[in-house]
Amino acid sequence: MKMEILFPEFCNLFGDIFNMKYLKMCIPEAELIETALDEVPTFVNEDVNLIYLGPMTENTQEKVIKKLLPYKERIEELIEKNVVFLFTGNALEVLGKYIENEDGSKINGLGIFDVYSKRDMMHRHNSLMVGKFEDIEIVGFKSQFTMMYGDNTNSYFLEVEKGIGLNKESKLEGIKKNNFIGTYVIGPILILNPLFTKKIMKMLGQEKEVALKDDVMAAYEARLEELKKL
C-alpha cells in the first residue's frame, strides 16, 4: 500500500501533517511517500492508494495550483477510480474554479469541482466544529481567511451541527465525491476522530483497529461532549 503526502515542506499549517503520521501508525506496513514541490508526484506515473494535501499559505496555493494543473486529468481519473483523497484546510480551494482576492482579481484553480472561494485577509474566521458524516460525528476546528461558495447539496462531506459549512450561510461542509474528501476541518482531523479514521482505513481495505484506540477514543468522546455543551 502506498500513501502519498503532497508537498509536506509547505502544506503543513496547523500541524495537519500528523493526519498522515497517525494513519501510518494505524497501517505501519504502508509505504508513506513524501513528495516535494519540485518533484513529480508519484500518483502521476504509479498507482497509489491515498493522496493527502494539507493546509498552506495563500502564496503556496498559487504554486500548488501551477504544479498540479498539468495533472488535472490524472487527478479526475483517480477520483473516478475511487482512489482515497484527503484534502484538509484550504487545500480544497486548489481544486475549485477560482480563488477571488479582495480586489476582485481571481486565481484560477484546477476546476475539478464547481465551487469557488473568496479571500478576506483582514478577517480570519475561527470556530469549533461538530458535524455528521454518515453515522458518526466529527469534531474539529476551522481557521481560515476564505469562504467557499457553490452548490454542494449532493456532494457535501459533513452536515454541520455546530459551526459553519462551506460559508457562514451554509450548514453543508466540504466536498465528498466517491472516495475524495475535502474539508476545511483541521485538528488534525484523523487524530481527533478515530471513528472517521477507521472509515478511511476501510476505504483502503483495512479492517484493523486504529492505533492507540483506548486513548484516542477517550479523548474523542470527551471533546465531543464538551463541544456539544458550548
Rounded to the nearest angstrom, the distance between the terminal CA atoms is: 41 Å
Radius of gyration: 17 Å
SSE order: EHEHEHHEEEEEEEEEEEHHH
The CATH H-level homologous superfamily: Class I glutamine amidotransferase (GATase) domain
Give the DSSP E fraction (strand runs of 2 or more residues). 25-35%
- What is the CATH fold-level name? Rossmann fold
The tally of strands reads: 14
> Segments where pLDDT lies below 50 for 5+ residues?
none
Question: How would you characterize the largest beta sheet?
Answer: 6 strands, mixed
CATH class: Alpha Beta
Provide the number of structural domains: 1
The CATH architecture term is 3-Layer(aba) Sandwich
Number of helices: 7
Strand order of the largest sheet: 2-1-3-4-14-13
* Overall average pLDDT: 97
Approximate helicity band: 25-40%
Structure description:
The chain is 28% helix and 28% strand. With 230 residues, it is α/β, with parallel strands linked by helices. It has one domain: Rossmann fold.
Outline the fold blueprint.
Layout: E1 2-6, H1 18-26, E2 31-35, H2 42-45, E3 50-53, H3 58-68, H4 72-80, E4 84-88, E5 98-100, E6 106-108, E7 116-119, E8 125-133, E9 136-144, E10 146-149, E11 158-162, E12 172-173, E13 175-177, E14 180-183, H5 189-192, H6 194-203, H7 213-229
Parallel strand pairs: 1-2, 1-3, 3-4, 4-14, 5-7
Antiparallel strand pairs: 5-6, 7-10, 8-9, 8-11, 11-12, 13-14
